[in-house]
């Protein structure tokens, strides 16, 4: 998911002209330099925030004429110095455009040490530093550029992007409004402002800015994409699912064409037809949207489901799957096809339909998977734990040591489902006696499903295991970032996708204190109820 699941993309850059001692320096980093995406869980294809690095000149001017012997020598030295500065800048620009960001930062910095009165170079340095996630340094560079050229609208938009990634949202709004005030004709300025409101979960206001950007360019892919996600977050499913088809146009989320058969539109008769449901995006997305497969199976003669190798053991348990094919393998014959994530759009799934479809579990552990757990005597609650996930587009991890108040509770046995380097947190903190590491027993989602089915509760961050637990019907408590993903909506402790899910949301960016405190209280209440029941207390 999503994806969940961020990714950078670059637009075509204009080529700079050759450097010259008698001409002004040329292009800065191309306009609309991409930065970081907001993805749906595990899907690596969401929105770019656009950095604008306008073409411009350095502030040093070529010398003209001579004033005698000494004047000529001084003029020659000045020309040579400008050549050196321009060469450094051009090399930095070339490195930046080639994606060699560390080299670009080094060369831009060398340029500015020679002549710091160059606002466009400061701006370019800020773009490069932001791309390297050196946000504080990037902000300093943007501010230096602003001191030299305060009327540069693109610079203010860039600064707003940087502040947004630093989660300094109020300051980001001020910067973006300044950019729009200076130039409201640039679509990315308005779009970037909308992203701040999106990250604040103020989706109605975000939609206003996305619409303003689309008034400038109705085909603006990024604005159409984030507009769709805003509608979905608000539960406006008709507009949201229609707009969700924009993902096909995202540069880093290609859905390969299949010209051998038509794509199903949701209306044509499927009786006796073989339909291919195509894989796309991340693990969590595939698990989430697999709930629609049985609906298709009721209409079609045969369902072919494509998925990644790791998902095959659990996708075999989805009702109605006739043939399962690993993504990348040769496809069997089919009559029609459709991407799996397009099903709610073509089938007209609204809130009522989603609630009905999601009422029951739709995945189960693969047959034959054996799970043997040996909790300590007196255990009344077996709890699965996932506290760390992917770092992009934002780190969704919750530090394991924040969960110490529940890990020390008597009567509960904890099992780690981490399969990455963060398994080492258990030993690092010294919790081997409190948490059993299951990582060596998990090789695919079938293993995870069998182990999860043996849990009384799963506590997780926003990740594919959250989807898996929900699809299995296992009680799952999810710790959610302040900036919500569209599928978890806004200000809800429940989910229309998974009836067994409970959501604990950050109230402030980067602060797990409130949600962990609430989760801890609920957990201790549940544990005490289980202990009383085990003791036979009334």
Q: Could you list some keywords that capture this structure?
A:
six-stranded parallel β-sheet, four-stranded parallel β-sheet, 12 strands, alpha/beta, disordered N terminus, 10% strand, 538 residues
Shape: globular
Rg (C-alpha, Å)? 27 Å
Distance between the termini: 44 Å
Parts with pLDDT < 50 across at least 5 consecutive residues: 1-49, 54-68
What is the mean predicted local confidence, pLDDT? Answer: 87
Strand content: 5-15%
Structural class given helices, strands, pairing? alpha/beta
Task: Give structural notes.
The protein is α/β, with parallel strands linked by helices and 538 residues long. Helices cover 41% and strands 10% of the residues. The chain contains 20 helices and 12 strands. It has helices at residues 69-97, 101-114, 119-131, 135-148, 153-165, 169-182, 187-199, 203-216, 221-233, 237-244, 283-289, 293-297, 312-315, 343-346, 351-357, 404-407, 424-429, 445-453, 464-472, 513-535; strands at 33-34, 50-51, 274-278, 302-307, 323-326, 336-339, 381-386, 412-416, 435-437, 457-461, 476-480, 501-505. It has a 6-stranded parallel β-sheet, with helices on both faces. A 4-stranded parallel β-sheet has the order 5-4-3-6. It has a two-stranded antiparallel sheet with strand order 1-2. The chain is globular. It starts with 32 loop residues before the first strand and ends with a helix.
């Amino acid at each position: 998911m999503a994806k969940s699941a961020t990714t950078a993309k670059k637009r075509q850059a204009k080529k700079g002209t050759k450097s010259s001692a008698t001409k002004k320096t040329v292009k800065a980093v191309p306009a609309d330099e991409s930065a970081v995406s907001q993805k749906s869980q595990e899907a690596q294809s969401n929105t770019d925030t656009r950095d604008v690095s306008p073409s411009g000149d350095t502030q040093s001017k070529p010398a003209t004429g001579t004033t005698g012997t000494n004047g000529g020598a001084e003029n020659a030295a000045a020309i040579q110095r400008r050549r050196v500065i321009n060469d450094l800048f051009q090399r930095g620009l070339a490195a930046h455009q080639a994606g060699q960001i560390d080299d670009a930062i080094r060369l831009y910095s060398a340029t500015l040490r020679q002549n710091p009165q160059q606002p466009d170079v400061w701006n370019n340095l800020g773009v490069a530093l932001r791309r390297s996630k050196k946000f504080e340094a990037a902000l300093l560079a943007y501010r230096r550029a602003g001191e030299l050229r305060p009327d540069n609208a693109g610079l203010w938009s860039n600064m707003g992007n940087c502040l947004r990634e630093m989660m300094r949202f109020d300051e980001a709004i001020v910067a973006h409004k300044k950019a729009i005030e200076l130039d409201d004709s640039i679509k990315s300025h308005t779009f970037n402002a909308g992203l701040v409101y999106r990250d604040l979960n103020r989706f109605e206001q975000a939609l206003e800015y996305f619409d303003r950007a689309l008034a400038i360019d109705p085909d603006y892919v990024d604005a159409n994409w984030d507009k769709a996600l805003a509608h979905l977050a608000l539960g406006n499913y008709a507009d949201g699912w229609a707009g969700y088809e924009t993902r096909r146009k995202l540069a880093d989320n290609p859905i390969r064409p299949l010209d051998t058969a038509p794509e199903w539109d949701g209306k044509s008769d499927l009786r006796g037809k073989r339909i291919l449901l195509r894989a796309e995006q991340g693990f969590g997305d595939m698990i989430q949207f697999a709930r629609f497969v049985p609906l298709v199976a009721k209409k079609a003669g045969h369902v072919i489901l494509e998925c990644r190798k790791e998902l095959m053991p659990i996708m075999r348990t989805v009702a109605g799957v006739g043939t399962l094919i690993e993504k990348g393998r040769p496809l069997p014959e089919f009559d029609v096809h459709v991407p799996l994530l397009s099903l709610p759009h073509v089938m007209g799934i609204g809130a009522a339909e989603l609630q009905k479809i999601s009422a029951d579990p739709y995945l189960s552990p693969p047959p034959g998977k054996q799970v043997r757990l040996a909790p300590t005597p007196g255990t009344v609650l077996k709890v699965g734990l996932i506290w760390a996930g992917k770092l992009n587009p934002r780190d969704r991890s919750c530090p394991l040591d924040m969960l110490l108040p529940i890990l020390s509770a008597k009567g509960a046995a904890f099992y780690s489902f981490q399969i990455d380097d963060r398994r080492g947190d258990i030993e690092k903190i010294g919790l081997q006696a409190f948490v059993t590491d299951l990582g060596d027993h998990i090789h695919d989602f079938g293993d995870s499903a069998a182990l999860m089915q043996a849990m009384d509760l799963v506590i997780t961050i926003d990740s594919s295991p959250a989807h898996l637990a929900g699809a299995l019907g296992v009680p799952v408590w999810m710790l959610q970032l302040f900036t919500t993903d569209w599928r978890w909506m806004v200000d809800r402790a429940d989910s229309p996708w998974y009836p067994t899910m409970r959501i604990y949301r950050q109230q402030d960016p980067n602060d797990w204190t409130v949600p962990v405190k609430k989760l801890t209280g609920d957990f201790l209440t549940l544990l005490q109820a289980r202990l009383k029941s085990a003791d036979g207390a009334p």
